[in-house]
Amino acid sequence: MRAGNFLIPIVVIAVIGVLSSVFIVDEREKALVLQFGQIKSVKEDPGLAFKIPLIQEVVRYDDRILSLDTEVTEVTPSDDRRLVVDAFARYRIADVTQFRQAVGVGGMRAAEDRLEGILNPTIRAVLGSDGVTSNTILSADRAELMARITEQARLRALPLGLEVVDVRLKQTNLPEQNLDATFARMRAEREREAADEIARGEEAAQRVRALADRTVVELTSDATREADIIRGQADAERNSIFANAFGADPEFFEFYRSMTAYERSLRGSNSTMVLSPDSEFFNYLRSDQGYRSDEGERR
Length: 299
Description:
Strand 7 and strand 8 form a beta hairpin. The chain is α+β, with helices and mostly antiparallel strands and 299 residues long. Strands 6, 7, 8 and 9 form a four-stranded antiparallel beta sheet that branches. The protein has a three-stranded antiparallel beta sheet with strand order 3-2-5, with no helix packed on it. Helix 2 packs across helix 3, helix 3 packs across helix 5 and helix 6 crosses helix 7. The C terminus is likely disordered. The chain folds into four domains: 61 residues, no CATH class; 114 residues, Band 7 domain (Tetrahydropterin Synthase, Chain A), CATH 3.30.479; 60 residues; 40 residues, no CATH class.
């Protein structure tokens, strides 16, 4: 009974020791086995691995391609036109042993700080080199510049055990003060162009209005002339009809003229006329026998 009591703790301790000596390496990571801070082995292949319990520890690092966004960097190309550049890098841990020796216990955070200290000076050096202008950086030639930055950063990152896969420029803008000045200049140019367009539009509008006014005058003149001609022809035709009617029946023509005169002179509800008592104007109204002249002849 006493032997069984001693055996159980021994078995438990043995099981714990075996479990603590086994660890699993994922396919997405690399592992270092450390003993008192010194590297004893490197585990890069996925699967089970072993270590000495309580004496050795396992440190894991990501084996995938990682991304690092750099801080905004101000560069001055050869044309002295300052630009603000925002970039990012793709990198991976190429040599985990060298990486551990370079960054120590700082791990990935220390590695990214040191990598950013490599990227920003490299970006400024390449974009500020001779022959590189702001137009070059903003054009399709920036692909060649990014390749140069990537190559130089890769060489400088090798002592850290890192492999820089790619460096890309996300945004390239003018500094805030230069941006405001550029916008003001662009606004002034657009306002000048707008003023020119407005002036040209006003000039064209004046030409159109002048042409329209001249056309109106010409059309009105032609219409007035044609109306006068038609009116003259109508008056001539009317006079001819009157003359023919007077020649055919002078008495009826005189009667018609008197009725027309009555109609025109006696319009309205309160018409007043002052005439001589022996005026011939109302001869057709004084007698139902028709008009008589001073000689008393009936007409």
